[in-house]
Amino acid sequence: MPGREVIIPGDASHGDAPSPAYAKVPVGATRGIVVIHEIFGREPDIDRVVGRFATRGYAAVAPNLFHQGALPCIRAVFRAMSTGEEIGAVRQAKRARQWLCDEAGLTTPQVGIVGFCFGGGFALLAGAGWGAVSTNYGEVPPTERMRGIGPVIGCYGGRDLIFRGKGAVLTERLAPLGITPEIHMFPSAGHAFLTDGNHPITRALSKPIMHSGYDPLAAQDAWTKIEAFFDRNLPPTDPHQA
To answer: Is 241 within the bounds of a domain?
Structure first.
């Protein structure tokens, strides 16, 4: 099944322009997933994540949150973690979810969100109202910014000295909301171990403290846990419904 470049409609009431995305929507998809890219933007490895979910029968889409520039988006996301303001990138992710629902005949509770690095923190910030949230080695917003979030899974690399403690932070900040996240630590892995992108300069520069890079063994284990998490928490469409 080929993937396709799509355009997610904008929202004139907020001044949000239409935005590009990459999608795979298999026939008969019973669940959906919105994939949020790393700080590198929508790279081929993110497209492969879309394909991974599609082979499992998920309708999947990866919006390009940086389509109007990376720095403005990154600044807005981190500012929103502090202020709680509504930002265009979060609305964009929600419109990608609506596009997916319209394409595959899904409802909002049947769609989850997964993010990596920058996208891991974004998934938590945007996670209220989603069926389930997978955050991977990303920043953790304050408790109030995550109010309304559903089930959460978090994966972290033990060699990532900056983000390996974020699982404990996430657990602490979700506790007042009555949510216990499913946290997994992978001791042999560093930052960005789940996606197989080619970023040799970043890998070299990050080695002393983050040890960034794809770790096939840890990734296989983590993906098994993430996929099982979404399978448990996203209600599938009943194929017998008319």
So the answer is: no
Examine residue 242 and state whether it is found in any structural domain, yes or no.
no
pLDDT digits (tens, 9 = 90+) for 142-172: 999 999 999 999 999 999 999 999 999 999 9
What tokens does 198 get?
């080619």
At 4-59, the pLDDT tens digits run 999 999 999 999 999 999 999 999 999 999 999 999 889 999 999 999 999 999 99
How far is residue 167's CA from residue 111's CA, in Å, rounded to a whole number? 23
Q: What is the CATH number of the domain that holds 171?
A: 3.40.50.1820
* H/E segment holding residue 218: helix 216-233
Q: Which pair of tokens denotes residue 145?
A: 């910014």
Report helix, strand or coil for 57: coil
* 172: enclosing H helix or E strand: helix 166-174
Q: Residue 70: inside a domain, yes or no?
A: yes
DSSP single-letter state for residue 107:
-
Q: Using CB atoms within 10 A of its CB, is residue 70 exposed (0-12), middle (13-18) or buried (19+)?
A: middle
